[in-house]
Design a protein that fits this description.
It is a single chain. By secondary structure, the protein is α+β, with helices and mostly antiparallel strands. It is about 40% helix and about 15% strand. Strands 2-3-1-9-8-10 form a six-stranded antiparallel β-sheet. Strands 4-5-6-7-11-12 form a six-stranded antiparallel β-sheet. A five-stranded parallel β-sheet has the order 15-14-13-16-17, with helices on both faces. Strand 11 (about 195-200) and strand 12 form a beta hairpin. It is globular, with a radius of gyration of 24 Å. The two termini are about 30 Å apart. Residues about 575-580 have low confidence and may be disordered.
Amino acid sequence: MFRYLAFVWDSNLADPSAAANELGSQTRQIQVWRQVLSRPGMQVYTRGEKTGINDSHLLHDHRGVILGKLFQRQSLEQALHPRAKEGDFDQTSSTEILNSGGLALQQQFWGRYIAFFTDKGGAHCVLRDPSGTLPCFHLQRHGVTVVFSWLEDALQVLDAQELPRVNWNALRAQLLHGPQIGKGTALDGVQQVLPGERLDLKEGRPTLLWDAVHFARSPLYLPFEDAASLLRHTVRSCVQAWAGSYDILLLRLSGGVDSSIMLSCLAAGSSPADVICLNYHSPGSNSDERHYARLAASRAGRDLLEREREPGFQLERVLQTARMPDPVHYLGWMNSRTDARLAAAHAAPALFTGAGGDALFFEISSWWPAADYLATRGLDSGFASAALDAARLGRTSVWRAARFALRERLTPDPALRATSGPATAFSTESSAQGMDMELFSHPAQDEAQRLPIGKFTQATALMQPIGYYDPFEQEAAPELVNPLLSQPLVELCLRLPSHLLTRGGQGRALARRAFENDLPAPIIRRRSKGGMEEHIKAVLNANISTVRELLLDGELCRRGLIDRSRLQAQLFDRPSTQSASSSQIHALVAVEAWLSRWQP
């Protein structure tokens, strides 16, 4: 489990320097930490480094250090397999990175990294890579900025009276609108550095060097077949680059288009890595995709492990997860124990997933691509075809698709650009009073509002980083790798127009065409999408006593943030004017479990 911990302070001030020395001394006494950078005003430590997977790369003259995994952008663009950066940076490369304030690093490399450096003006900075894979949080202690990836590490160097407290405004925002994509967290004093952001740790001044909106507003117009060829090359290069870091890996294979595309890039003979596929299934109308997974694994010449989703998952486990800056929506982690056991049994240090594909390849059933076409190309001869495709995609008439697109062009509907919807059916009106959502918004949000509606939806979906650390298994978990969220691939798909991505009125149309000859025909033609709603309901019903006790007597009801009477009616199967999905109930359980770790 790769982590880092850094202390940054003004070395000209006595009190912060003394506090920093104390923090450094405490950290060095814990033998698992290795000091990778020490300079006036900055110390950086790592643990869990693995050569070729997560390394530390020093900049010349110890002006900084880059942590994680780096690939060279040039080799990707030259149709070569991207090579990992080995060793430290020479003087020329270091100077370029430092003089550009880290911009050269983002432009010439990609991967999974965090950079600490002192820029040409003497400011101590931290830079998070555009994928946002490695978490990056910071807090203040006696004039020292503590920067960390794993909150439990930071808590070890804090006194009991210094532990963070719940930020109730942030928590209310999450209850009302779902997970937020701003700097704030649900803990007072704990903030995150956003993906693609450089933070001057002395002045507290952030600069967004990379954001999805920049690429979404720069359309790349290509013939359909050329775009498909470019997409295929970029996907294969990124997936194979990540796989080249491992001798053995697990690949979560649902049998859907995204995971099957990834597997095709790692078919026998395409990658030296030993790829072991893993499929989860459970009873239900759309919860068993083994048929498709078997087709994909057979075509790729890879072994397939089939496991039932953990039917006896106990929600008490959620009360024992690691302390995190925000509540952990645990539904995606419920099979983590099986993941960890299989990874250990097969000596596989990594688990690959196809996460992010819905937004990346545009699997959004809506008329929006017609509106995007009108916004970028105008009412030309191609609009009729774009409207017809959008009508098929959105399952509406071509006249309605064209009318909606024209209306959106003339008078955009702000409601369509809401970054999130209600997170729960149980929020009370009082919980929204005085809520300033701008405090929890991404700094590029205003600019995103001016994008065509389809690109707005895609870009904002890709702004939210996916969790990296397993809150349940922690050290025992395999490293999570999501190759489809690689920076070069995200940039490309943001630039490709939505009407091109959905040509013919089909979600993922361009991706399907790009890999048409690599996948079994039933998967290319597949329209259904697997789910686990019935499994989620089964887990909820099996734990209903625990859920009732936790929620009805919990802090959210006590503070009036959720309506206890409506919640009680739902949990006791009594008629209710407001129904809620099982996933919403689980989301409330996640919040109450998280609160139980922070309440005195």
